[in-house]
UniProtKB/TrEMBL annotation:
Name of the protein this chain belongs to: Outer membrane protein beta-barrel domain-containing protein
Entry-linked InterPro entries: Beta-barrel_OMP, OMP/PagP_B-barrel
Phylogenetic placement of the source organism: Bacteria, Pseudomonadati, Pseudomonadota, Gammaproteobacteria, Pseudomonadales
Transmembrane segments: none
Gene3D superfamilies registered for this protein in UniProt: 2.40.160.20
Keywords, comma-separated and alphabetical: Signal
Keyword Signal (UniProt): yes
Signal sequence coordinates: 1-25
SUPFAM superfamilies the UniProt entry points to: OMPA-like
Amino acid sequence: MNIVRPLFSLALTGCFAIATMPALAQTEPQGFYVTAYAQASRLSSTSFDEVGNANLGAGLKAQFDAGLGLGGDFGFNYGNGWAAEFEWNWRRHDLKSLSGVGSAAVTEGDFASNILFLNGLRRFVRPDSGWVPYVGVGVGWVQEIDFDLNTGATERAWSKQGDIGVQLIGGAEYALSDTWRLTADVRVLRLGNQQLSAEEGVTGRLAKPGYNPLSVQIGLRRMF
């Protein structure tokens, strides 16, 4: 049963519902900020077909280890409970197992992405607390999504550029000082099923591997 789509729709509805609720004491200083973060990312198993000369065949199923992500953002806090930011995110999920007709030939692999986001955030500011919860939605442009399935020293890669994705954000910011903040949040990214064209060592394509990771991240933010 595919629960990603209804879960995503429910989370999106919840984000907009929370963001439109009245909140107290939404005044805070305006200004720019930058953030650097690291994330743990989880990518669910996915089924797909290989069409080309790699001889992996149809009905393949891949499972992944816990992934690692790195990124940063440059944003502006409007001082009224709203913020906007430009974000760069890279993440990689190493292949744990691959099953299917030709899967025995694969010795290692990974599913990775490099994405640029434009995010809008609703911040819930309280003057009597160092914590600032927030929710947000981001639209992402895929600079590259890449699936590698290698056999020993033989590298085989399929990739795609230019796709559009959406992410949901929920987390909190904690003031360490007047200028430094600690951030922690959960992000749900949805790119859906992909059509990846041959990039290296193969011909053809990978048909419909799904890419909808869930991540938890910790960041350090500098206010200006």
